[in-house]
Amino acid sequence: GYPVKNWLVHKKRKVEPAPRRTWRQYWVCLKGSVLLFYKSCEQEPAEKPVARHSLIIEGCIVQALPEHPKREYVFSLSTAFGDAFMLQAPDGAELDSWVTALHTACASLFARQHGKSDTVKLLKSEIAKLECSIDLVS
Predict the structure, then answer these.
(1) Is the pLDDT of residue 126 over 80?
(2) Domain range spanning residue 47?
């Protein structure tokens, strides 16, 4: 399983720290463009597991957070809706696997929605916008 933490919440067009900062452990599964959070991976064989939470990753930004002050192997996932979550993997290899899997899932979804021929053009345009935003912040 992987602990997950709601790190930031979207409120009145501003991203602010969430009032509750407790970590909870979940078994997390990526299915297509949805992250499913289960109570545990141990379910009775006759029972179909029911996800406690789900998170659509379409348009998400994922990045490792090696500078986290209290925990190792943490990464953030920011949604297209402005919410941000921090998740913790059990080790560095799992961290890399999750970040890669989430990037791949987002890129695949983007490519399917925009067609393969336009994907490179659109990605270059988005990179240019991000670089411009970074320059404005710096």
Answers:
(1) yes
(2) 2-137
